[in-house]
């Protein structure tokens, strides 16, 4: 199969859509950081002005560490940075469902665009139900052996890997487990 211009155009358009969402999230994060530093600027300027008011030289480390204003500015900066970390985590994870849905839809469209014309109309992707995904996650992250007869971690990893591959291939987990025994 050759790479058509339509497929390339579709890939570029879809990449642009995901880039736009990422750029929007990054812009929100940058704005939050900018506001935080603007809020802290006056406090730091006051602390630095107090430290350098009586001299033309930069104060020593000991002088800075004894300065209440500098220590207060530093404490407020640490608090604000912690708040930003929490805000950024919320901004980032809040964007994920939309981004993952977009990626899934993009993948479906790209796959469909690669089919020959006679098959493209009849092909459709059936999304995996959320309930089924939850079951897969529960099964692959849960306890898979008896607690009374523990097995080594490397064997557990192989078992889980085989089960995950089986799920990806649409195999019945019991059939995969029988193959491991």
Report the sheet with the most strands, covering strand number, pairing sense and barrel closure.
none
Give the tally of β-strands: 0
Proportion of residues in helical segments: over 70%
- Individual helix count: 7
Amino-to-carboxy terminus distance: 41 Å
CA-atom Rg in angstroms: 28 Å
Structural class by SSE content: mainly alpha
Strand content: under 5%
**Approximate shape:** flat
Q: Average pLDDT value?
A: 80
Q: Write down the secondary-structure element order.
A: HHHHHHH
- Low-pLDDT residue spans: none
Describe this structure in words.
The chain has 181 residues and is mostly helical. It is built from seven helices and no strands. α1 (5-52) runs antiparallel to α3 and α6 (153-169) packs across α7 (173-180). The radius of gyration is 28 Å and the shape is flat. The model has no long low-confidence stretch (mean pLDDT 80).
């Amino acid at each position: 199969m050759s790479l058509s211009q339509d497929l390339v155009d579709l890939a570029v358009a879809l990449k642009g859509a995901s880039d736009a969402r990422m750029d929007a999230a990054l812009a929100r994060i940058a704005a939050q950081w900018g506001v935080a530093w603007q809020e802290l600027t006056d406090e730091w300027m006051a602390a630095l002005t107090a430290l350098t008011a009586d001299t033309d030289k930069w104060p020593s480390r000991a002088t800075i560490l004894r300065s209440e204003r500098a220590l207060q500015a530093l404490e407020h900066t640490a608090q604000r940075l912690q708040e930003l970390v929490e805000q950024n985590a919320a901004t980032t994870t809040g964007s994920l469902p939309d981004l993952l849905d977009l990626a899934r839809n993009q993948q479906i469209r790209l796959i469909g665009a690669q089919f020959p014309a006679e098959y493209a109309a009849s092909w459709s992707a059936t999304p995996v139900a959320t309930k089924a995904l939850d079951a897969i996650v529960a099964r692959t992250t849960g306890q898979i052996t008896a607690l009374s007869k523990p097995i080594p971690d490397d064997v557990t990893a192989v078992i889980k890997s085989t089960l995950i591959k089986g799920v990806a291939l649409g195999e019945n987990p019991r059939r995969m487990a029988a193959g491991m025994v």
